Amino acid sequence: MGADLQSNTYLSPGIQAMLPFLYAAWSDRHLSVPEIQSLRREAGKLPFLTEEDRQILSDWSDPVHPPSRERFQQWLTSGRRAAEDLPEDRTASLAELGIWLGLAAEDEPEAKTTFWQEQLPALHQIEAGLGGIREDTYRALFPQYDQREKLHEAIRESTVDPAELQRILEGDHAATIARVREILLRPSFERTTLRIKEDYREQVLRWCKELAREGIGALSYPREYGGQDSMADYAAAFETIAYHDLSLTIKFGVQFGLWGGAIYNLGTKRHHDAYLEATGKLELPGCFAMTETGHGSNVRGLETTAVYDHENRELIVHTPSVAAGKEYIGNAMHSRMAAVFCQLIVNGESHGVHAVVVPIRDESGHTLAGIRVEDNGYKLGLNGVDNGRLWFDQVRVPVDNLLDKYGGIDEEGRYVSPIESASRRFFTMLGTLVGGRVFVPRAGLSAAKSALAIAVRYGLRRRQFPSESMRSETIILDYPNQQRRLLPLVAKAYAVQFGLDHLLDRYVSRTEEEMREIEAMAAGMKSYATWFATAAIQECREATGGKGYLAENRFADLKADTDIFTTFEGDNTVLMQLLAKSLLTEFNKSFQEDGNIAVLKYLGRRVTTIVTEQNPYVVRQTDREHLENRSFYVSAFHFRARRLLSTLGSRLRAYIKGGMSSYQAGLLCQTHMIKAAEAYVEQLVLDESLKRVEMVREQQHLSDGLEPSDGTAATTADLLEKVITLYAAHTIEGHAAWYLESGYISGQKSKAVRKLVDILCAELRPEAGALVDGFGIPDGLLGAPIAL
Amino acid sequence: MGADLQSNTYLSPGIQAMLPFLYAAWSDRHLSVPEIQSLRREAGKLPFLTEEDRQILSDWSDPVHPPSRERFQQWLTSGRRAAEDLPEDRTASLAELGIWLGLAAEDEPEAKTTFWQEQLPALHQIEAGLGGIREDTYRALFPQYDQREKLHEAIRESTVDPAELQRILEGDHAATIARVREILLRPSFERTTLRIKEDYREQVLRWCKELAREGIGALSYPREYGGQDSMADYAAAFETIAYHDLSLTIKFGVQFGLWGGAIYNLGTKRHHDAYLEATGKLELPGCFAMTETGHGSNVRGLETTAVYDHENRELIVHTPSVAAGKEYIGNAMHSRMAAVFCQLIVNGESHGVHAVVVPIRDESGHTLAGIRVEDNGYKLGLNGVDNGRLWFDQVRVPVDNLLDKYGGIDEEGRYVSPIESASRRFFTMLGTLVGGRVFVPRAGLSAAKSALAIAVRYGLRRRQFPSESMRSETIILDYPNQQRRLLPLVAKAYAVQFGLDHLLDRYVSRTEEEMREIEAMAAGMKSYATWFATAAIQECREATGGKGYLAENRFADLKADTDIFTTFEGDNTVLMQLLAKSLLTEFNKSFQEDGNIAVLKYLGRRVTTIVTEQNPYVVRQTDREHLENRSFYVSAFHFRARRLLSTLGSRLRAYIKGGMSSYQAGLLCQTHMIKAAEAYVEQLVLDESLKRVEMVREQQHLSDGLEPSDGTAATTADLLEKVITLYAAHTIEGHAAWYLESGYISGQKSKAVRKLVDILCAELRPEAGALVDGFGIPDGLLGAPIAL
């Protein structure tokens, strides 16, 4: 080959530049007259061809004298070698090859770079003029051509059907989701840019009313009040609305979930009869007035009071100080009523927090006497939600307005409650709040899915050099760095959904005994999912560059609207500490209950771990089979969760034994607590994801028994397993320092995990389009021009 | 002590609750009559006191019979023990202690929690009624009381004077910064909420004009055109404006830096005379029309053409296709002229990219013939900047409009250039763009500083339980988790500034030979600083919870406006790869030039590293002295930078040797390249930061020789050294997995580094207020109500 190339060296730069064209022209061993004419005519205009060059070109394009086999092979070899050297961003074009060959043949290539660069348009013209160059020609010249073509095909046809993925994600609620989607795609829901909050809020109110008219708001209410009695369908509707507009989602949640939920869960039949149907239809807009400025997360310490006046059978609702005002209340500017949480005082005795329905506006929207409302003003996002502050000045309402399911006032003016323990009563009432922690992360996940769908589609379609004369184009997602940015997030979106689905199932079918556990789980999943949403949307914005910064491409709103999700319904760092404390209580309880047996069991498990997972061989094992095996990564997740919790317990005990107060000890372990809680959530997410993969696999086996298999479902299960493996490997990679410190993996194994993430990203790259289409977000809701 | 407590156990819950009050009442061994009356009267109303309890209370508050020393001690012991058990968020109050004691004495505490909780207001009233309880009493009861008081003091008086820090940060440009600050604090610069982009843009234009009238825009121009000839002062002004409004900052940069910079740097005297003074005064608004839709980062491939017509001595500027339109051009809607970058074609020959001044609007603002302008619409942020798209349809301008410093057309119509090499000419012209990469990260850093100042001040001042009856309050920044969130970012802000200052110095005093190196450094620092800004502002928003979500507290704009900084002036991931390639070239060059000596040197350094840094003792060394020693962390930074670069080189060589094209090999190493570039930047930032610390220390020594030292400057240098140590330790912690994988540190050492970060955060907590005040942002510019 060296000799072949050598024999080309006498050729001038100009002729070198023409070789790819000569090769292409002769590659089917036949040159048409128009082709010859085009080639010679265009070549005549080229400034870099000398008279001598033109003569050679004319000889070599003489149809009567085809080139010798050797010469033809030389042209191919030169071209192919140049193709290998083509710098980044260059694509399969003869023009590019010609430039490269010409430049390389110059005596001082640096000085001639611009000159040759500027010849590109003319050479493109010649390439176009040759017409009908066969794919084979490109394939022969460009070593990566085949692979690229495969990638193009992969976009068009990945190995799975997105509809199949969508079926799995939507589960039993496909019908509800489809119905809500249909409504959101109506012309009346068309998005417009409304920068002034009052305009935007009016639009969101109109949208919310339309959803209410269609019965979507009442889905979780009993049938006799216009509902479907299905909390799960309500959740499905809620997360689907989040594909459209997050202000609408939150307002919808406040009206039907919080206000309606308070009436339904804390009220009795007379309240249901009076308010529920009108609430579901949004004929009665209401708000949930719990939080106070001075008591962000301390519900028990609320200062608003409701004093019972037996003579008039009335409650006097009052805000004792400015700081006791109700803060950040959604729907505050549109509501006619409020469920006000306050200390109930009967006969001078306080019975703790109860909710009272207080009318705040008349039918024409005027604020009633004794009510003060203040707009919260512009926020970072969610400006379509009318948040406000509320104060009550000795406002009198009939005692019937007390939502008295768990505590009321009888005819004689005595406080009565079916729950004796004030503490249990309080926590039972507070159970209505947990719903928010189950639903909000689903809306956050929807936003992340929208962002990922937009960024991945943009990554699959964008051409960096879109000039028409080029045949092939660079797909952004072919860059490993872009794969690294987006694919682990796509995988995590699937895993998080499986975790949230489990939480929802548990929540919907909960018993009272399970509530504490479910509350802790909800606290953890809410934090994990909303942190994920914030990070994923940010990464997508950056991955789409300047295009992603234009409001029309939706990252502006997705980012801004979801940013508060990590704070509301409980600040994530606080929630994670709550979860950790709950886990610790369980952990300690099991020790206390089982006594020495528990200790032996625990030690036994540690010994087993050391033998099976932490032996020197496994710690260093780096083969792909091992790393992709569930036994490795599931064990790693469980090990981390277990170890972080037990070391947390030990640390706390040691501090307290050393004379520290439990408060101080807790402070010192804050970061540790958050990590332990995160590890628990990750273990849950992984376990539940793998269960879902198995369900998909089993369904396939079942249908295999009934009818001839087309192999679809098996492939889907395999793909999902790979997705979850990526989630697992990427998560372990993120905690690599901890695993290394713990001696659970060696440095080599840590590198191998990183490499596995690279490989899985590359392997999932052709499936990326199907994976985001599987989210089932219609183009009309996705909206972003760069994704369409 | 057990016995003492035992002897209390016969007391009823009610009396237990009163013990702290009894202790306080008797703590000065003297009970006034009003105190006795208040205590007895209020106690009479308490529902939890039995008749018997009241009798005991009456006995124990009999002024004639003070308690025995033993009994008094018992009260203290009980109270103190309860104080230690107080849960989170409770503060030093007798009322809280009473509740806790009463509850603890109940048979079934769980059932009574709410009941006791509800006694809090009444007990607070008693506490207030006792009047003038001495600090000593609180100090005796609450073990942490002293420490808390110390922290309070620390906020008021940290060990350094913020003005001293400010002096260091502002350096030689204090006067310019002060002057710009004074202008920005004028009533005319008051911020208002302008949601509609047209309104906002008009306001920004007005502000920009006022700055121009004050000569701020022209700072970098020669004196004869109204300037000060100081690029560094221009930079100082630019970063100060970023404390006010980032749309203004960017528009200011476009008008004076990009448009004015093009005139000044690419034009000749006739252009300077014609445009520069009017540009500096903003009487002539202009824009910098380089980027095209189809060629985001490929300036050489721009498609807009300027064809020379010798007959009329005119240039015909033309956009050949829609995709060749100029994209995202700042100032596009307000400009009267544009510096249009296009391929210059003379006599049918292209001479590469040149800039031509093209009038686009007449004096009354109407678009001229042949010009099409389109608004880019709403963006995620920076909506006060009028970005637009531009197309030219055969627009004729006199040949004099060609900015011809590096290439022009002579009287005979021939292309002439002082730089023969087209390539060198191109890169010289492009040098004007690098300024943006030097200035933009400074604006990003200003935004991060604003966010940090707001979040830290909020963390220092917020009281979680602000009810008036409580004497002490919880400071959010006392939570270790909050310290962890904010203090490493404050430290990094200092380090990044020192790095950026170095870059600016190099840029301002650059020679042509240094340009390549400075360009690479600017690419890296721009990426590092803007990524930092995005992350820091996000963390600050989350750390301030719901308050941080209100637009008035400024995170909304800080986040949205800076989000594009990671993309514009070059996408960060692309820039980092550029830097890596440049580093690799240098690395390879030094090998080639020095030949075997270089190899030996390199191997020698590796051997030295292995002996001095990677020996088993050092790898496991965990004492604080070692970890805080520069020799540890500087070596660690250098090791990482060196190792990542040399392994990058090896990997690339191996791939290429194995038959891969350099394009493919580069793709596979993308992530590695970015990491290598990051390590280089971090090493630079650390080295330059330590140099600055030394400068501060030396100045102190100098002034020591002249006058008696008050110890201030020495403390400042020590504080700065601690700040940089935190930056170093936190950075190493972030790369812990890599250091562990490389065997550079052991698992124990990795844990010790994490612990060191905790300790440094706690130690810097009392300095946090001074550190952010040192940024020198006046309250009037900080603006956020939560920070004031």
From TrEMBL, chains A, B:
InterPro entries: ACOX_C_alpha1, Acyl-CoA_Oxase/DH_mid-dom, Acyl-CoA_Oxase/DH_mid-dom_sf, Acyl-CoA_oxidase, Acyl-CoA_oxidase_C, AcylCo_DH-like_C, AcylCoA_DH/ox_N, AcylCoA_DH/ox_N_sf. Its cofactor is FAD. Residues 632-787 form the Acyl-CoA oxidase C-terminal domain. Its main location: other. It is found in: Peroxisome. GO terms for biological process: fatty acid beta-oxidation using acyl-CoA oxidase; lipid homeostasis. Residues 431-584 form the Acyl-CoA oxidase C-alpha1 domain. One of its GO terms (molecular function) is fatty acid binding. Residues 287-395 form the Acyl-CoA oxidase/dehydrogenase middle domain. Its EC number is 1.3.3.6. Belongs to the acyl-CoA oxidase family. This is acyl-CoA oxidase. The keyword Lipoprotein does not apply. Keywords: FAD, Fatty acid metabolism, Flavoprotein, Lipid metabolism, Oxidoreductase, Peroxisome. It holds the Pfam family Acyl-CoA_dh_N. Residues 207-278 form the Acyl-CoA dehydrogenase/oxidase N-terminal domain.
